Amino acid sequence: MDINPIRGMKDLYGLEFRKFQYVVDKSVYVASKYGYQCIETPIVENTGVFQRSLGDESDVVSKEMYSFEDKGGEQITLRPEGTAGVMRAITSNKMFVNENNPLKLMYYGQMFRYDRPQKGRYRQFHQIGLEHIGEKSPYTDVLTIELAVDIFKAIGLNNVKVLVNSLGGSQSRKVYVKALVDYFNKYENELSETSKHRLVTNPLRILDSKELNDIEICQNAPKSRNYLNKEDAEYFEKVLMLLEQCNINYEIDLNLVRGLDYYTHTTFEFRMSLGEYKDALGGGGRYDGLLKMFGGADVSGVGFALGVERLMMLLSNDVVLDSPEKVAVIPVSESEFDVAFRLVRTLLKDGIPTELITGGNSLKKRVELATKRNCGLLLIIGENEINNGTIVVTNTKVSDSEKRNTVVNMKEIIYFLKKNI
Ligand code: HAM
Fold first, then answer.
1. What is the DSSP string of 363-420?
2. How does 33-61 read in b/e, with b if 16+ C-beta sit within 10 Å?
3. Residue 191's pLDDT is what?
4. Given ligand 1 and candidates 310, 311, 312, which is best to mutate, with the most ligand atoms within 8 Å of its CB?
5. 267 Cβ below 6 A of ligand 1
6. Which side of the chain, N or C, has fewer Cβ within a 10 Å radius?
7. Across the chain, what does the average pLDDT equal?
8. Quick one: which atom of ligand 1 is closest to the CA of 270?
């Protein structure tokens, strides 16, 4: 039996798990201040949920989905992203949403993409995602971007840059796609096979190609911003103006088309502006008509998802150090196990973080073990302590040996610990 996890997937424990929890907790806290509520959708959906909404020709759908037939013959897929599932859930649960009654939903959990694993890229990874559905305005777009920036700041990342672009609405998009087709037709023979195919089925997706030759051809391809109609251009100008007003560190990236089909108007991505990590920490944008595609109301939405592993990579270990404010109850020998056990339960019931240390075959070993487990206060229980009704509390964080130990009356131990933790 192979005891390794599946390639591109990993176990999460110890420090890494604490980093994960930290990123999720901070994000949920910040987003809830902006009025978002949590939703959890299943990890597996019918393949159709993703296929049309993300786009048959997108890399995610055409190459990266974990899709299979279940025992009942249904085609199902491990979710590669969260937006489509949330739209499906809004419709399935008949959640009420219209222009006057927007929905603000956030989610976090595992996503699956059969991608080539490398630093910060996995086949199972976690996203934190937010969707604001029902309202369409540059104000909503910019507040959504600012919310992401606030999350970055809350977890201590102050050097995040926002890249923005606009794909325009459906009318501008038609004109733009025609310009792309005219342009790529000139290079038809030089394009990769996938791009040739996309030229017929979905020309916009040629811009996602990772083939070197395609990338070169794409460099001079028409840019969506130059094909926006008046209304869409004004919308984007307003977004830029509001970003200025909010002092958000942004840059226009005319090549930002974002790999999934559902985007319209504003698209954005978050990257570190300093340091060596170049991949996106997250990204998102506006989507008109996505909910309607799932049979819901014809309203627009905007949202983004952050890659939790990528954020964890940038966190310093200090922010998630195990709390040293933990108490260890250490019986000197087996005769004191019963008393120690009762004391541990009393302390825990009173809300004091406590561990019972019975491992190791000597007191010295147990003290070492408690220190390794990051317990700051040691309560050593021996025969004398039981007879006298007192406990010696050793504060391992105090270096002065005379002040390290305090004799405390057993009856006052909770009061003492609460004062000293
Ligand atoms: P996405 O750009 O495909 O957007 O993914 C968002 C983020 O997920 C990426 O920026 C990255 O940080 C992380 N990510 C993606 N693939 C991997 C991977 N293989 N390993 C580790 N991290 C990864 C979406 O998924 C959209 N649903 C975002 C959205 C929400 N748009 C509107 N609402």
1. HHHHHHHHHHTTEEEEEEE-HHHHHHTEEEEEETT---HHHHEEEEEGGGHHHHHHHH
2. ebebeebebeebbebebbbebbbebbbbb
3. 96
4. 310
5. no
6. N
7. 95
8. 10
Across-strand partners of 67?
A: 77
Condensed to tens digits (0 to 9), the pLDDT of residues 5-31 reads 999 999 999 999 999 999 999 999 999
pLDDT in tens, 197-217: 999 999 999 999 999 999 999
- Residue 171 has a pLDDT of 96
Q: Which two tokens stand for residue 251?
A: 């840059």
pLDDT-derived band of residue 323, with 50, 70 and 90 as boundaries?
low
What is the percentage of the chain residues whose pLDDT exceeds 90?
A: 89
Judge residue 353's burial from the number of C-beta atoms within 10 Å of its C-beta, 0-12 exposed, 13-18 middle, 19 or more buried.
middle
Q: Report how far residue 125's alpha carbon sits from residue 247's, in angstroms, rounded to the nearest whole number.
A: 31
What is d(CA 8, CA 214) in angstroms, rounded to the nearest whole number?
Answer: 27
Predicted pLDDT at 409: 94
> CA–CA separation, 421 vs 413, rounded Å?
12
Average pLDDT in the 226-245 region? Answer: 98
Assess contact for 191 and 218: CB atoms under 8 A.
no
pLDDT, tens digit, for every residue of 56-71?
Answer: 999 999 999 999 999 9
Q: Is there a contact between 113 and 259 (Cβ–Cβ < 8 Å)?
A: no
Q: Whose CA is nearest to atom 8 of ligand 1?
A: 307
Q: E-assigned strands of 119-256?
A: 124-133, 160-166, 250-252
Tokens of 314: 């940038």
Cα(127) to centroid(ligand 1), Å: 7
pLDDT at residue number 324: 63
- pLDDT above 90: residue 38: yes
Give the count of beta carbons closer than 10 Å to the beta carbon of residue 373: 13
- Dist CA 83 CA 236 (whole Å): 23
Closest alpha carbon to 85 in 135, 33, 32, 48: 48
CA angle centred on 408, ends 406 and 411, rounded to 5°: 165
Domains of the chain: 14-168+228-318 (3.30.930.10), 324-420 (3.40.50.800)
- 127 pocket-lining for ligand 1 (C-beta < 6 Å): yes
Length of the chain: 421
Question: Which among 111, 155, 262 is the best mutation to test ligand 1's pocket, defined by most ligand atoms within 8 Å of the CB?
Answer: 111
Contact call for residues 283 and 268 (beta carbons, < 8 A): yes
Helix 230-245, helix 138-154: angle, nearest 10: 30
